[in-house]
Amino acid sequence: MADTRKSEANTESATALRDVVKIVRLDEEAAAGNAVFYKNSDFLALRAKIENENGEREEKTWDRVFLHRAFPFDDPYRYISVLDKDQNEIGIIGDLRNIEPEIRKLLEEELERKYYTPEIKAIKQVKERYGFSYWKVETDIGPLQFTVQDTYRSILRVTPTRIFIVDMNGNRYEVPDLEALDRKSYRLIELYL
Amino acid sequence: MQSREELIKRFVELDKTVQHDDVIVALPFDLPPDSEKQLVDGLVGFTKEKIKVYRDGTLAAEYSMADVKEIKCVPGIGCTTLEILTGDEQEILLCRSNMSLNLLYATLAKRLNRYLESGVFDSSYEEEVDIYCPKCHRPYSPGSNVCPHCADKKQYLKRVWEIAKPYKGYIIVSVVMYFVISALNLLGPYFNRILVDDYIKADQMPKFAGFLSVIGCIFGVSVLSRILTILRSLTMVEASNRVIVKLRSMVFNKIEMLSLKRVSKRTAGELINRITGDTETLQNFITYQLGDIVQQLLVFVSISVLLFIYDWRLALMILLPVPFIMVAYRLFWRFIHKRFHKQWTLSAKSNSVLHDIFSGIRVVKAFGMEKAEMERYDKATADERDISIANERTFALIFPVIGFFMGVGEFFLLYYVGSKILGGTMTLGEMQQFSSYVSIIYGPLSWMANFPRRLVRVMTSIIKIFDIIDEKVDVADKENAIDLKIEGHISIEDISFGYDESKDVLRHVSLEIKPGEFIGIVGKSGVGKSTLINLVMRLYDVDDGCIKIDGHDIRDISQESLRSQIGVVLQETFLFSGTIYENIVYAKPDATREEVITAAKLAGAHQFIMKLPDAYNTKVGERGYTLSGGERQRVAIARALLHDPKILILDEATSALDTETEKQIQDALQRLAKNRTTLAIAHRLSTLRNATRLVVLDKGTVAEVGTHDELMKNKNGIYYGLVMAQRQMSRMAPGVTKVSESA
Q1: Is the ipTM here above 0.90?
Q2: Which of B98, B138, B455 is best to mutate for the A interface (most A CBs within 10 A)?
Q3: How many CB pairs under 8 A join A and B?
Q4: How far apart are the C-alpha atoms of B426 and B419, rounded to whole Å?
């Protein structure tokens, strides 16, 4: 009972918020034929007829747009912000699945290009010296070596079994499932979990 | 990372059409331009005419240098890209790489843009982008340029010795005491043997006096050894404290000398750690471990020698298991270390949960989340409990077992010695002496197993300490720096500046400020307003151009004379622990009480100070009375006014005050402003109503300069836009007067 009431209240307040702040849902606009993403030389461009500040629909072209994930770790293909050159938000793609496959592929490629995260298949060696840890791993793009500083704080635990390691340069490596690692790999990483 | 020369060579090998000298720079990349997940071997070469992109040995793209308008480094997440903008506004992706090249890309983009402007390429970037030791290719510690792996460790130990030298008397005395103590330790079992063999188990009735004197000897040895141990500890503590205090003040003085640029490269925590933590590690090492190693080694060697002289077979039997014990000990240590670390992490986690809840207790209560937080804490402590129970269990099981195996040698010894006694070749006393030696000799062993680890730790600390001490002072006074009596004429001549290599915060800024002017600096957040005043104070040195005060480059003026004539009130007002009076009088310790009160009155602080029970004697800062943001600002303004500077800098100095109080202070400042140059930053534009001129910064450059009226005439101007936005804001919400946006 209590839960239903709570969720009702939540929906209500969400509606109230939506009346005040308008989010431009570019996936919905695209489905309605008001927004088209296309490739402009190497990058992504957008032509859209969306509401401006005065609430009027106006067709505009952005020669280059940037994508930024709102939830890069736990929801990478939903809530993607579309930004212009000055990093102002044009709108949000609520869910990539709402976009037709061809254009979706374009968007996914753009995301993959910006978010580069090799997946760790196995850990070969972890050595610790003078405050750094030196890692040798096997990834989906081949063997890699990297150095992590302040190891405990550089391992982000997204779920109990899914982690990201951030190295000293800002590169990210994902272990999608800790339990799928072989015994030796797990033993090497266990100390830092 | 390969050097510039190596990369250029590689590029020339790939591209036969270019001459070595025509190549400006070449840089590597390892990711394809599209999203495909694979590694590539790529090289981009910039020549005077062309940009050529080679991927896996073949030419992938080629652009004309003449078409390039700008080169940009656009970092992604986990990777980075270099892009060019052509003359006809087209953007092209040049190359993409993992993040380790980001600093190189950013730096080179900046330098190449300068090259496009001026035709000169500054190739002196390598040291700045290289964060790896050239010898072992391992990264330096953050904010350091010394590789802990390759540093000449002997050199550092020698320098520690240089510092310790004045106290060598202490050290010699304590070393001598170590020898004596070790010798005494060996004497104990010897007297025991005499006691047993000659008196207790003697064949004929011994003399009672002799018996007493042996007991006396044992007693004396024991007392003497204790006394010496105490004395030795005292001497060592004395010596090490003196050395450490000296080291600490060396590090502290050095940090204070360093420019803000160097200091802010490190966090406050890191700096504090260098002064206290690292020196403490060294202190502990000198006080306890250095002495211990001497003593333990002495004991070990002398007992071994004694044993060998007496019976080499016996000695071998005791010493043979030594390597095994060492190995076993190390393995054991690694095992418990892992487990304990985990327990420690979990305990830290549950502590931080607690810290989190208590610091946010108002939020927790306001949202009625007590129960949820309770569960969160329960879970954290439950995790900790589980691992600690598991650990205790393992311990209870493993310790006795390990102890047993470590003692196995003694069983053999018992057998060997026992059979000798039965055979009549050894006396009971001798056996006792032997068992004592054996139990003594196992002591240093476990200790020595851990020594390498301790040594590494102390070496790391030593290197970190000297890393600071050796750092070059970059904003230093020139030898012939002058003491200048400042009039207040500031001219900023075409300056450029960036906090790091990758991005210029200010670009080609020029400004002429006459003495007595009140200059208001406005602009959006992050356009470089605070940076500009930091440069005027010379907290940083400009990269290009120069700043002159009264016609003298500020780099020629001694920092002491410069800063003693500049008064600053910053947005984040910092009050030291102490009384309000002490805080105001900070910059002018010889001020009279009346001067202090006058300054406080001018700053609008007197009123609220007098409402406090202890008035000017109220303690503030940590553990003191908590002043509100506005009160703190007023104290800081009083501090700056008492200082009576020729140049007054206000960086959002009145942002936390209500408009009325602000107006009062502004008017007071206005009256004071004669003969005083004032630079003020404010988001709330009404703060600057008294300004003689306003400077609008945008994207690191001066966009507009003029009086309020002049600037308002340009309806498309930035200032006009800012004023309109604020007017609209105050119309929308009449109650809100503060435009809170930090600089």
Answers
A1: no
A2: B98
A3: 85
A4: 9
